[in-house]
Structure formats: C-alpha cells, structure tokens
Amino acid sequence: MKLTFTAGTWSLVLLAAGGASAQSVLKYVNPNIGTAHSRWFFYTPAAVPYGMAKLAPSTNGHYGNASGWEAVGYDTRQNSIEGFVHFHEWQVGGVSFMPTTGELRVKPGDLEGPATGYRSRFDRKNQVAEPGYYRVLLDNYGITAELTATKRVGFHRYTFPQSDQAHLILDIGNTQGESGEVTDARVRMVDATHVEGFVSTYPKYVKTYDPNGKVNMYFYGEISKAPAGVGAFTAAGTQPNITSAAGKGAGLFLNYKTKAQEKIELKVGLSYTSIANAKANLLAEARSLTFDQARAAAQATWQRELSKIAVEGPDEQNKTKFYTGLFHALLGRGIASDVNGAYPKHAGQVGQLATSGPGPRPEFINTDAIWGGYWNLTQLWALSYPEWYGNYVNTELQVYRDKGWFGDGLANSEYISGVGTNFVGLAVAGAYQVGIRNYDVNLAYQAVRANELNYRNRPFGSGKMDVKAFTQYGYVPFKENYKQDQGVWYKTDSTGAYFANSHTLEYSYSAFAAAQMAKALGKKADYEQLIKLSNGWQAILNPRSKLMQPKLADGTFAANFKPFEPWRGFQEGNAMQYTFYVPQNPAGLIAALGRDKFNSRLDSIFTASAKTGFGGGKEIDAFAGVNAIYNHGNQPCLHISWLFNFSGQPWLTQKWTRQICDEFYGTEPIHGYGYGQDEDQGQLGSWYVITALGLFDVKGFTDARPIIELGSPIFSKATILLGNQKKLVIEARNTAKENMYVQAAELNGKPLTNCWLYRDELMQGGRLVFTMGPQPNKTWGTKTPPPSVQ
Q1: What distance in Å separates the CA atoms of residue 101 and residue 59, rounded to the nearest whole number?
Q2: Which CATH class is domain 313-332+366-481+494-558+568-773?
Q3: How many helices (H) and strands (E) in the chain?
Q4: Relative orientation angle of helices 386-403 and 424-433, to the nearest 10 degrees
Q5: Domain spans of the chain?
Q6: Which residues is 548 bridged to in the sheet?
Q7: Parallel/antiparallel/unpaired status of strands 153-160 and 309-312
Q8: Which pLDDT tens digit goes with each residue over 771-787?
Q9: What CATH number is given for 26-307 in this structure?
Q10: pLDDT tens figures, 72-88
Q11: What gap in Å lies between CA 203 and CA 479, rounded to an integer?
C-alpha cells in the first residue's frame, strides 16, 4: 500500500495483506455499529488512528455529561445535528463548527425541536461514515458537510446551495460532550481567512480527581473564502461587525453569499498547548494539502493499520465485527503532543518530550483508565501495534516525572481515573515482560513499585488510596459507612473502602505483576513482599459459600451478604462476577473452590447468561449488567470465559468465547457491543479482535515468561504482521459457526498438545493451524494446564 503524488494530484494505491484491495478492508468498518449508547470518542469517523483531530457530528454534545461517564455525542436514535466537533477524548471535548443558511441563529437549539436553534435534521440515508471520512446532508439548509483529518488537523468541506444568507457558526465557548464547565474561551479573526482561539474547561472528573487542573484546547484555522461579514456572540448576546469574542459562550458567525454548489473549505490545526503550536501543527501536516488529498491520506493510513491483521472467510458479518472492533481499538486513545514535542502538563503548563530509549520520540497521549485494558487493548498493542504500547508507557512515565505518581486515566496530564484503583503499574510491567522497553527501565520499576506500595502524600487522583490498609491487613477492610460519607459516595482512604473486595482482588493481581518485574530485575526483597500481597484474595474468600465476601477490619465477614448485590464491596459488579477475579493464580482459585465445583459453577454461569446476551439483555444502559451473573459489557468479567483452559476443560473456553463473539457482539446501531454497554475507548472491540483470532492471556502478559492461551479462531485464515515485523498465519480448518471446537493444533508443523504456548514462541511467526469440529475433543489440551503462579 502506498500514497503517490503524480502530476499535481494524489492517487491512492492500496494493498492489504494478501494482496486485497483497499475497500476489501475499509468496507468492513461500520462506525454506525453500537451508536445507540456510544461514548464521546466512539463515533468519530473523520480521524486517523490515535489522532488528536477526531471530527464528528454531534447530536447532543452541548447537553454535556453530568455523570462524566454516560454516553454522549452521537446517538442513532436522534435525528438532528447541532455541529461538527473537533476534540473527542475521555473528559475532553470542544470547538464546534456548523454551516447554516437563512435566519442567523447562534444557539444549537433543543434536541426535540431543531427549529429553535441552528441544529439541522438529517436522514441517515444521506450519511456516509468511513474510517477517515464523514459526509451528511443537512436537510434544514440543503448543505452537504464533509469531514476528514490528519493527526492534528481537521478538514471541513461544506457545499452550499445558492443563498444570500449563508453562515458558518464557530461555537467555541460552550460545553461539548464530556468537557464539563467552560471556564474561559476566546476566538478571533486573525485576518480575512484565518481564525484562532482556545477554550478552557473543567471536566467533572478533573474537578473530582485533580481539582487544581484544567483542560485547554487551542486551534488555528484557515478558511478557503473570506466572509462578507463577521459577527460575534457570547452568553450575553450577539454583536454584528465584531471579529472577536471572549468568555463563556464565545463564538463567531461568518456570513457569506453563496452560489449553488459552492464549496467552502476549512483546515483547523489543533493543539493542547498553544495557538502557536496549533498553527505549527497545521503548517507541518497540511500546509498544501487539499481536502481530497487529506481524505486519501487518512484512508491510506487506516488501510495500512487495519491490514496488519488480514482475516479471510465466508462470513461477512464476522469481518464487519472484526474490523469495526479493530477500528475502535485504534481510535480510542489520542495523541496530545504537538509536532515539535510539546505536551500539556498539569494546570495548563507546557512540557517538552525528550527522546528516551531506542526508536523515535514517543507521543504523549490522552487515555481513559486502563482498567480491564490488559485483557484486550494491551494484548492487541503487543501483538501488532507495540509503538502504541510504548507511547502509553512513556506517557505514564512522563506524568510520574512531572507529578510523582501514575495516573489511571489522563486528560492533558490531569488525573481523571473514574475508577480509583490504578492499574498503570500492571500495564507497565506487562510491557516490560513482552520486551517493550523504549524507556528508562529503572524509573519504570520505581514507579511500578510506588504504585503498589507507597501511600504517604498520595494524591486522590492517582487512586489506590487504601494501599496502606491493603499492605497492613493483606486485604482491604470493608467500610459499610463509606457508601456515603459526608456527601462523598464510595469513599476510600487509608483504613478501608466501600469497594473493599474488588480493590483487594485488583491489588492482589497488580502486586503479582509488580512482583514478576521485581524478580526479573533482581529485587528479591520487593519480590517477596509483593508476591505475598498477591495472595490477598485468599483472605476474602468465604470457605463456606466459596464466594468473595466483604470482610471487616476485625477479620469477620460482613453480614447481610447477597451474592448478586452490585456495588456493596464490588465496583461495577457483584460477588458472583468478582469471585473469578484471580487472574494471577487461576490454579489457586480452582483448588480453593474445588475443580468440579469451579467448572460446574462457571459453566452454569455462562449457560444462564447466554439467555440475557451475556450481560444486560436488551436494556440500553452502560450498567445494565451490573447485577447480572455475568456481564461482558464491563471490565471485571472479560477474562472469565478463558479460565476453563486452567481447569481442564478447554473446550468450554472454546464454546463460550465463540458464543460471546456471536451473540454479545452485533452489527447494528442498537446492537453493537451488547445493547449500549460501556465501551471504554476500544476495549470491547479489542476483546473481539484477539478472541476471534483465538489468542488470549488472562494475566495480561505479566508472567516472567508470558503465555498465550488458545481458543476458538473464527476465521479460516488470519495473516498477522507482528510487532517485530515477522508474519504469523493462523489457519482454522473447517471453522464454521457450529464448528467451534478445536480437534487438534500445530505450530510450524509441530503438533501442539497444550491449549497454550509461550508467547515468545508465537512471536517467531510462521503458521499456527487449528483443525475445528462440531463436537469437543475432550482429550486435546487437557494434560498440562497453563502455568499459574511463577
């Protein structure tokens, strides 16, 4: 695949792995899937992988997001567009443009009454959404809007009808999506065809977790046609013939007289550090680039990145699930650094990234919490996109340098955890174990250790506020009164937590990861302390019920225990879900429950949950499955279906992972990732991708020598460009919907008798071949289970 420039024009020459044409991959990405309850980042087709510029239509963005996590932005059940927004990250959103005709309006208007503002109705028959490109007809105005992007530059092209009253509304100073309260804004015309400005916001989770923080967004735009007139507006009202506006509600309206089919184009450089850097980003990436050239380049980039994993087979629907999942995985985190290496530091400061380690200078990225990401996203990164795993680690180490602590969830260096447990150390340790080490390893270990053991002067936003209690007791004591304490919900401090059980299980897992890194680096005393803490789960397992049960500081179990009750002791889940949360030592959990009980209980859980779509049924809500017996729509359950590989019944892992792929995941706007589940920046999409390949690790690559578990590959052939540039071909002979069971397997001609192998063997590339069938082979893969404690 290549992008060529010939005789003054750009042409797209696209070759996917295996020689397929470009469209054979891009056509399988359907950004409209799952948009009934989609997160702010989720529907941003006009973007490149990990881009800062993520342009998209907004149906409800100005309404904001009071809870900070709810679905917002674009909803397939809504039929009017209020603008096209540039910034879409976790807790970050802003800078909306909208073309209109007729009477000037400067407010977006009500969702249910588009005529009250400048928003416009649209028909989805007149909408096109592809990786790197978006187009829609705005019915109220007869305007066709098109969007595309480079990494840091957004492109707009608006085709107007004939009109003496055409307008461009630049709505800068109002809430967009998850951005929270706007604290300041400014926009001004630099000259007849250039505009610049910024917006400062105070998102809900910044307010909660990093109260001295702020999120600044800057832009510098170039307009293809000078307006006939310019006016300004703020929350206070409208002023004609003014070319600048400042404060809350700030915006400009640009007036035009247009001919039929006249096109007006805009290029908008973006930055989180300064207007000057927004301009520098524009000049570096798009100085002479036209809209069509930018679109071609964006789609060539998507083709290259998506084609690193090329799947083949007769089922077109599965290909759509696969490539749409991969699209969201590559879209979910976005760069926050500029072309010159400037990045946003805490409280509006600007830092400068330095090259550290081999390879190019890493990018600084904005990121949702990594909670659960080690069961999908980091495994996908490690497989074929290691540069992004490296960027993630380097970003977290930069924050550690700047602020003294990791941040599980970052918006321009501000802590926005939302979870409060902080798995960054585990993800960093996993990167080290798979050989991603383009950073200061000693500094990385120092930060990992601190994340697990240090509690003095620990800021609230870094999470793990109950680390002292965990290290003191070996578990986190349950504090019933912390459900609400002085108006604060789900409090955590040095004495315990309301989410004590999930914290105990999570800290045990992350302590194991840190212990393995300590061992690799010869830190014997640290290893012994951490590996002891990794067994904290044993303290809260009730030997009678064989369930994880909240335990008080005095060592007694909490009364009034209800296994299906969500939240009480368990964040975003319940005891039935979290009892299987011992990924660092499945063998230990199996022994504690008894193998037969373990298998029968887990199998019955999936049998029951299959009737409700493996989670929340058809309820459109992120937490619909929080009190279910299993909830694939949220992070704590994502490894459970793979545990049968450890318990001697790998055919049940094959069965249930395949059924989850078939039934939980859909190809419709309403049924995408479940029905409106909580797709945290590409994690559920990533889970489908790696599971469909038949590859997984419940430990998130935290072992000293990581493994790969084998499941039920969906596609007859998958050709993977590995991160080390070697090629791996996965063949599944006789695979079909009913042929979900592995009969035999081999790697490079050598029979595999285990349902797992060491990851370093897989990363040598070659050919992994499965023979599939309709009935389980109950002798294959059962003799030697995957290693548990190392």
Answers
A1: 19
A2: alpha beta
A3: 19, 41
A4: 130
A5: 26-307, 313-332+366-481+494-558+568-773
A6: 541
A7: unpaired
A8: 999 999 999 999 999 99
A9: 2.70.98.10
A10: 999 999 999 999 999 99
A11: 29
